[in-house]
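Lay summary. Proteins are chains of building blocks that fold into shapes, and those shapes determine what they do. In this project we predict the shape from the chain. Here is one chain we studied, written as its sequence of building blocks.
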Amino acid sequence: MKVGLVQQANSAERTANIVKLQQNIRFCAAQGAELVVLQELHNGLYFCQTEDTNVFNQAEPIPGPSTEIFGALAKELGIVLVLSLFEKRAPGLYHNTAVVIEKDGTIAGKYRKMHIPDDPAYYEKFYFTPGDLGFEPIQTSVGKLGVLVCWDQWYPEAARLMAMKGAELLIYPTAIGWESTDTDEEKGRQLTAWVTVQAGHAVANGLHVITVNRVGHEADPSGQTNGIQFWGNSFVAGPQGELLAELSNDKEEICVVEIDKARSENVRRWWPFFRDRRIDAFGGLTERFLI
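And here is the predicted shape, written in a compact code that computers can read:
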């Protein structure tokens, strides 16, 4: 199966961003992609650098305008499409939500981001209610997709539960970058850790991992920081952690990668981690901390 990754730099002009996304999705489809994955909150800027109640006006219902626009495109191109949207569920209730569009343009399913960060320049708890749909893979015509979002990628439990429920791929729309005051050495450590932990999910679960990050500099509207330099580096890892594709840190890229889902079965036969898990001894994982 061919998978398209769209690593894009965004502006404050949402209409222009969406037009560029449509062009990039078309490029992937023309290269044979059956599944195309977009970055986190792809329609606009990453607005969580500040806390501003006016930003809630950007949120939309699901189904809504974006699912209609991208659903029509998925149907036209005959592809499965992974979106990442700012969902307005009800007045005062909002989520960071991934939506999977089927080849016929319908909504195959959605996932609401479960782990919500609250760090300098990533004030997501101000905007997003933690997800309540659990870790449920979404069945599509190209397979069962374990879709998670950004901060979820640091948690092996999330990847494991998706795999245990039959996910054939793990997919992470992402928005992560550097603060300019960090040293080059610290930036390198952050990026290496980010790739390593997700490649580890691929190894531990015998699955391909597809991660699509945004790229480019986005200013801090408050002027209190130097903004975020999103580090791109979108990648695909195979079931043994091998990197099948790795995009650049500093420019927009569209990449189509061929993956072999059958490798997961072979790798799980060679490395039977699921067989040997000591599930009788894992009860402590449901506790916050153990002394």
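What the prediction tells us: The first helix runs from residue 14 to 30.
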